[in-house]
């Protein structure tokens, strides 16, 4: 599907505030409410809009300690990768897992309450996975920029 300028403007509105009504968007764009509704439904059907979520401040739910954890696997066979990825998907502390190139195989974004909670996660969950060769933890000091907005 080719996205035109009106679609981009609708997507920008929804990325800024998904609770904006179709009427509010239509007033800004000079379209009818029905036209906005149909365009949004088309963007959803085509998979351009994949889901709507509520973004939560991690600190307000005691998950304000962010760690980037680099993982090196002992082998790179497909079954090792698949097993690791399946097990990581079962760990609620891991909010992102990226398969990367370079010195490490994966980077995990982990949210926990504090350093003690991270140690507990590392010792009781992460390092119990058989196929991990090594880990390296990077503790964040401050979030300089964090965004879910994709510029169109």
Question: Could you explain how this protein is built, in words?
Answer:
It contains 5 helices and 4 strands. It is α+β, with helices and mostly antiparallel strands and 152 residues long. The chain has a 4-stranded antiparallel sheet. Strand 2 (94-99) and strand 3 (106-112) form a beta hairpin. The mean pLDDT is 96.
Order of helices and strands: HHHEHEEHE
What composes the largest sheet? Answer: 4 strands, antiparallel
Report strand %.
Answer: 15-25%
Number of strands: 4
Low-confidence stretches: none
Blueprint (SSEs and pairs):
Elements: H1 5-16, H2 22-29, H3 33-45, E1 65-73, H4 78-89, E2 94-99, E3 106-112, H5 115-124, E4 132-139
Antiparallel strand pairs: 1-3, 1-4, 2-3
Helix pairs in contact: 2-3
Supply the key terms.
single chain; alpha+beta; 4-stranded antiparallel sheet; 4 strands; 152 residues; 36% helix
Quick structural summary:
By secondary structure, this protein is of the alpha+beta class. It has helices at residues 5-16, 22-29, 33-45, 78-89, 115-124; strands spanning 65-73, 94-99, 106-112, 132-139.
